[in-house]
Every structure is written in C-alpha cells, then in structure tokens.
Amino acid sequence: MPKPTRTPVRREDSLTRERIIEAATALLDASGEAGLTFRALSERLATGAGAIYWHVKDKQDLLSAASDAVVAAALENGASGKTPESRIRAMALGLFDTMDEHPWVGAVLARAPGDMPTVRIFERIGQQVTALGVPSKARWGSANALLSYILGVGGQNAANRHYAVAHELDREAFLGGMAEAWEQLDADTFPFARSVAGQLATHDDRADFLAGIDLILKGMRG
Domains along the chain? Predict the structure, then answer.
C-alpha cells in the first residue's frame, strides 16, 4: 500500500509588502534586529525567501519600511492638538512612547537620517514650526533642533529600558543606588550632581522629555 504523501502547507492569502512588514515588525519587537532574518521571516510567513525578495530589496530596505510604518502610525496618533505647540508636544510624546515600545526603531532612525522615516518626522515638525510663525531663516534650525532632541532622547530612553529589561534591573532600586552614589561625590567637584541626587531617584522620563520639548518651544517663541 503506497504511503500517503504530505501536502505542503500553502498560504491561503496572498503575500504583500504590507504583510511582510507586519511580520518583520513582530520579529523585531520580539528579538531585535538580530532576530530579523529572512529565514525567520520565511518561516513566519510560510513562504520562501525568494517570494519575500520580490517585495523588498534587502534587510535594510525591510528595516526602513518597518520603522516607517511604526513612525507613520505614531505621527497619526499624535496629530491631535488645537495649537502648533500642542501638536508638536503630542507628536513628540507619541514618538517617545513608540521608541520605548519598539526599542529597535531609534537605532534604525539614527543610522539612516535621510531615509523616509526621518524625513516624515522632519516634515511634520517643519509644518508645525511654520505654523508657529517662526521666521523662514530660523525654520531649519528650529525643526532640526526638535528632531535631534526627539530622536536622541527618545532613542536613549528606549536603549536604557532595553538594557534594564535584558539585565533584569529594578528601576527604583537601580536609580536609588545611583542617587546614593551621587550623594557621596566630592562636594567641591560635583556640587550640582549632589544637589539633584534626590530628583534622580524619583524622576519621570516622560515628564523630563516633555520639559525639554517645552524649553525648545520657548526658545523658538523668543
């Protein structure tokens, strides 16, 4: 009696660039950039690597597309606000939270400043800077300052959280220990660090981030 042959698993839905990006984002969230391989992606999508390459050029193209999708969603969700200032704050906080939720995004944006994800953010910021009435000669510097702050602080915060999770650090205990160390610094050499040690132990990252945004906006208003 002949043995029954195994029927290969077939996808019931068509493979699209959007589905590939969704699957890549899930892999990135779960395992970071190291976990995003075309082999892992092929297994997740139940297809061959060749079919994936039909829609994306390479891993960098995939990283850029995944980060752009995440950024676009964050900007859309953070578009609320009745004034340019409130819209900038909402967009900035939305991106801050997105980088915290997807720690790999900050690194991708930092490596590709001219790619679409960054250009998309810069455009949205620039529109609101213009709406604020900032003189044309100062718009580039103003928008660039906001962009650099958002990506720099947001990316560093995400990296810090990722490090804490990877090393199973308790935030309260870690910051408390650091604050105690600051309090023991030489008073003549580190007077300021000693004076704010108590705030270090209890500070709120999101509140500090928004405080920086407000300082930049205040400078732009003159």
Answer: 12-56 (1.10.10.60), 57-221 (1.10.357.10)
